[in-house]
Amino acid sequence: MKKPKLLVLALGLCLTGLAHASTAPLPKDLPAYGPDKAVPVPQVAQRTLSNGLTVWVVPRDGLPKVDVTLAVLGGTAADDPSTPALSSVMAGLLNEGTASLNAKQIAESLQAMGGNYEANAKPDAIVISASALSAYTAELLHLMADTTLHPSFPAQEVALHKANSLQALKVREGNPSWQAQRAIDRATFDTHPYARNSLTEASIAAVTPEAMRALHAAHFRPERSLLVIIGRMSAKDAFRIAEQQFGAWKAEGKALAEAPQAPREAMPQRLLVTREGSVQTNIRYGRPSLSASDPDFVPLNVANTILGGGFTSRLTQDIREDKGYSYSPFSMLNANRVGGSSFARVDVRNEVTGATLTELNKLYESMASQAPSDEELVGAKRLAAGIYLLRNQIQGSLAQTLANYWVQGLPPTFFSNYVTEINQVNADQVQAMGRKYFSPKDQSIILVGDPKAIEAQLKPFGEFKPFKP
């Protein structure tokens, strides 16, 4: 059953309103900001079962609802290079049938519990999340254990999923944003597994029930997994049910190898993906960065927010508000278990492609040469902390946040420390991040567009090589 989107959409609109607040000067007689409120700290009860499965439980008052997330180390980065992202297909088939239930019965069981279920393969882990009314906690965990530990991969469901995946791939291949992302991933990570995070026709052709069972057996091991349970129940009851449903899970075969450390630096590339007849250019401008456990992670988040993480950011104010080149330019930081990337995403009309690249160079250079004003720094920290706190008030989001921390090698205490560390970032640290990660000379430039319309503007920025995603 697909997860309802209304609450997520409402939160997204709320956060957009926060990030896109008006930049008109405020009245001088407004009162000062009030004191920061204490960060709500979830009390995480922790236990490791005899089979090695780590279990985190957060008893929580409120809605009569339980959210469960199972994270299994070894996502798309663990897939064979010849069949990239194959584990994403396997994850999507987990709830399509088990030894005792077919897909229809699984969907009906979730519906009866007021529940939902989703599974995805991320770069470093396969993550399964489910929720239901708290009265059905035992039933939900039983269903989750059945689908994750005993999937049957029925031939009919595999064939249907395979056909749908192939059609979805064809649609994505024509999307300029997907093409640009493939190119920036290749420029950033080169041959590292993080560059292989999308399905190919070869991957889809390799999908069979037998292949899915073998892939499942290689990935799913209790000593490489975390179960997070949050909701209206006692820790004692949650641990008891977790033991009942997952305690008999045993590892089989050899564990998957850990992904190697991703590059922290890369030779900047200039890549051009041809899209004949395009009236705009999709620009990606970035480089490798860091893992989430790196000491620079928090100050770099603040620096990125100042650069392009909100409506008052330098990127938006210059490229959108002042120049009018793009409607929604932004920059982002992706931090995973063994590395990450940072890049700007700007989509512009053809005739201002070169001018936009010039502005990107200036804006990135400003992160080292121009210290953030007090208003920039305070605004960025409040935005970063506020969005973080608001997002994690949602119970399901909190479960996934804690699971992501574990996957990234962070302790559960990072949740409560994050906002405190955000608020301690100073202007000197922001400029240090600018020197370390935002120097224009270190950034790759990716363009998706019509060469005939833009090539005359590209000469100042080096030689662009053709790239086929």
Automatic annotation (TrEMBL):
Keywords: Signal
InterPro entries: Metalloenz_LuxS/M16, MPP/UQCRC_Complex, Pept_M16_N, Peptidase_M16_C
Domain of life: Bacteria
Peptidase M16 N-terminal domain boundaries: 64-197
Annotated Pfam families: Peptidase_M16, Peptidase_M16_C
Keyword Flavoprotein appears in the UniProt entry: no
Signal peptide: 1-21
Peptidase M16 C-terminal domain boundaries: 207-382
Any one GO molecular function term: metal ion binding
Annotated protein name in UniProt: Insulinase family protein
Source organism of the structure: Dyella tabacisoli
